[in-house]
């Protein structure tokens, strides 16, 4: 069966990429809220936020990119939910295709769709004055950490996609994920936060990921944040993958 | 080959919580025949079909499909079957043609596009081939659904309430298709709660009640279970279905209806 995993995944990836191509609104709506936040924070609040020099849009962008991904994976949960409730999953499961190909098809589609949304947000940021002198290697590292983050959140999104009872409930899981960057170094430095909040902000994954990306394109040394961010993403990915696969095998016999 | 059993079920049990859905199901379906599994809502028809198509695991008992055990050789079973569920399992965003090609690719067949074209023609969907399935009528959707199930010519076909929600015309079209399939040697297990459907289509009828088969045989055999025929003279009125089909001028498919 494993010989077919790649082939079946490719077929199912093509299928859900077609879905996206035919409803590009999912990519645009994914990008619109983060772009609105970008505008709001740079042009309204930004003047009052002290980040220690440099353009605020440069400071803000990493957090906005994470918010983009956190809201984008909700569509993966939704598409999976539609497949499960529409009965097409049962058809696939009764056919001789690799068991996990359906999930991999959705997960890889999520990576493609989110990267397009992220690219849209970056373009708007550039138009707003975002600049970076970072080289290809640093950008590759940024891409790597964003893909890792997307994979982790997407596998997390698979769980409600498989278990939700309604289309409304399926995307609710993403709200706390979208909110997480607010209690991190994404919008303002953590040093101004009161004790317990600051402790949480400094020890949750978003801060290390945001700092890593920020330092990468500011051509500053990444320091420990790089390892901490990678470790967070890999650990989250592993836990989400195991939970999602368990849910899948439990639900689909 | 005609004497071998395509489906063999012995003592199959399945409970959901405290509720026993299947309480020792025994059933044999000879290859190349149509068996109608008859029962009211909640009798366990869908659960039985899901176990046979490897979607649900049984609690006890055994079931083999095309000679393969559903519990220990699920991959072999999946190569032997096709499932048409209670609701048309089609991709609404893809076109009809793309749906068929998708299944052909997932069954690892050569020339999926050619197979798709043949099926589109056979199910009178060629004109709608490049339209999104979301725009299809219920009958077209069901036809596409069944066409998708035929890709790869699986020897055993499960049809779970295939005519639920269809208008009389589409119902007759589905019946015609099923009869043609059985004529070509495909084994069909269909579930239904419409008695006339079972009467029209099935070589054998099994009645599922409270998780067990309480009667099993040909229509003639089942009729013998009742007291001998009484002869009564009744004025023959056309049914509303006869009238409906006559008015909309659908002459080709009313053979089945006219017999009643």
CATH topology of chain B: Rossmann fold
**Helix/strand order of chain B, N-terminal first:** EEEHEEHEHHHEHEHEEHHH
Give the biggest beta sheet of chain B. 6 strands, mixed
Structural class of chain B: alpha/beta
Helix content of chain A: over 70%
| Overall shape of chain A | elongated
* Low-pLDDT regions of chain A: none
Detail the poorly predicted runs of chain B. none
The Rg value of chain A, from CA coordinates, equals: 19 Å
Which series of helices and strands of chain A comes N to C? HHHHHHHHHHH
Classified by CATH, the class of chain B is: Alpha Beta
Regarding quaternary structure, how should these chains be classified?
heterodimer
Helices and strands in order:
The complex is a heterodimer of chains A (253) and B (260).
Chain A: H1 2-22, H2 25-45, H3 56-86, H4 88-93, H5 101-127, H6 136-163, H7 167-170, H8 174-179, H9 195-203, H10 205-217, H11 224-251
Chain B: E1 5-16, E2 19-30, E3 34-38, H1 45-52, E4 60-65, E5 68-69, H2 74-80, E6 81-84, H3 96-106, H4 112-122, H5 138-150, E7 156-160, H6 168-183, E8 187-192, H7 195-201, E9 204-209, E10 212-217, H8 219-223, H9 240-247, H10 255-258
Summarize the structure.
The complex is a heterodimer of chains A (253) and B (260). Chain A is mostly helical.
Key phrases:
heterodimer; A: 253 residues; mainly alpha; B: 260 residues; alpha/beta; 6-stranded mixed sheet
Description:
The complex is a heterodimer of chains A (253) and B (260). Chain A has one domain (2-251). Chain A is 77% helix and 0% strand. Chain A is built from 11 helices and no strands. Chain A has helices spanning 2-22, 25-45, 56-86, 88-93, 101-127, 136-163, 167-170, 174-179, 195-203, 205-217, 224-251. The radius of gyration of chain A is 19 Å and the shape is elongated. The two termini of chain A are 16 Å apart. Chain B has a single domain, classed as 3-Layer(aba) Sandwich (Rossmann fold), CATH 3.40.50.300. In chain B, helix 3 (96-106) packs across helix 4 (112-122). Chain B is globular. The chains are: A mainly alpha (253), B alpha/beta (260).
């Amino acid at each position: 069966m494993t010989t077919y995993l790649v082939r079946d995944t490719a077929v199912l990836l093509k299928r859900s990429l077609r879905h996206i191509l035919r409803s590009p609104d999912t990519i645009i709506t994914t990008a619109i809220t983060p772009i609105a936040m970008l505008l709001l924070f740079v042009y309204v609040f930004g003047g009052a936020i002290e980040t220690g020099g440099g353009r605020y849009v440069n400071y803000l962008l990493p957090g906005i990119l994470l918010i983009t991904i956190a809201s984008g994976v909700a569509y993966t949960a939704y598409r999976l939910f539609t497949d499960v409730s529409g009965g097409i999953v049962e058809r696939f499961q009764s056919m001789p295709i690799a068991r996990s190909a359906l999930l991999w098809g959705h997960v890889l589609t999520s990576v493609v769709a989110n990267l397009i949304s992220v690219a849209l947000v970056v373009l708007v940021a550039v138009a707003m004055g975002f600049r970076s002198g970072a080289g290809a290697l640093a950008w590759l590292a940024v891409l790597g950490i964003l893909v890792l983050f997307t994979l982790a959140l997407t596998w997390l999104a698979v769980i409600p996609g498989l278990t939700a009872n309604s289309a409304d409930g399926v995307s609710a899981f993403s709200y706390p994920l979208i909110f997480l960057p607010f209690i991190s170094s994404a919008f303002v430095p953590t040093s101004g936060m009161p004790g317990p909040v600051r402790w949480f902000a400094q020890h949750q994954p978003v801060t290390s990921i945001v700092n890593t990306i920020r330092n990468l394109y500011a051509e500053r040394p990444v320091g420990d944040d790089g390892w901490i961010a990678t470790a967070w993403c890999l650990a989250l990915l592993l836990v989400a993958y195991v939970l999602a696969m368990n849910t899948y095998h439990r639900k689909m016999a | 080959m005609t004497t071998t059993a395509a489906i063999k079920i012995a003592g199959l049990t399945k409970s959901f919580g405290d509720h026993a859905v299947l309480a020792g199901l025994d059933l044999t379906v000879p290859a190349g025949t149509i068996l109608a599994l008859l029962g009211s809502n909640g009798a366990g028809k869908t659960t039985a079909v899901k176990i046979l198509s490897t979607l649900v695991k049984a609690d006890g008992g055994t079931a083999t499909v095309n000679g393969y055990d559903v519990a220990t050789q699920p991959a072999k079973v999946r190569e032997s079957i096709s499932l048409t569920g209670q609701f048309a399992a089609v991709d609404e965003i893809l076109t009809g043609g793309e749906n068929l090609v998708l299944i052909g690719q997932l069954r690892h067949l050569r020339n999926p596009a050619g197979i798709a074209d043949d099926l589109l023609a056979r199910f009178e969907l060629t004109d709608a081939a490049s339209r999104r399935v979301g725009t299809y009528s219920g009958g077209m959707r069901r036809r596409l659904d069944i066409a998708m199930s035929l890709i790869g010519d699986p020897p055993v076909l499960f049809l779970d309430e295939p005519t639920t929600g269809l208008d009389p015309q589409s119902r007759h079209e589905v019946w015609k298709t099923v009869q043609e399939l059985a004529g070509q040697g495909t084994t069909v297990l269909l579930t239904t709660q419409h008695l006339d459907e079972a009467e029209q289509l099935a070589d054998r009828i099994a009645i599922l009640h409270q998780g067990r088969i309480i009667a099993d045989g040909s229509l003639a055999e089942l009729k013998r279970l009742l007291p001998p025929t009484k002869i009564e003279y009744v004025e023959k009125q056309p049914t509303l279905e006869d009238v409906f089909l006559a008015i909309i001028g659908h002459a080709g498919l009313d053979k089945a209806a006219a017999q009643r």
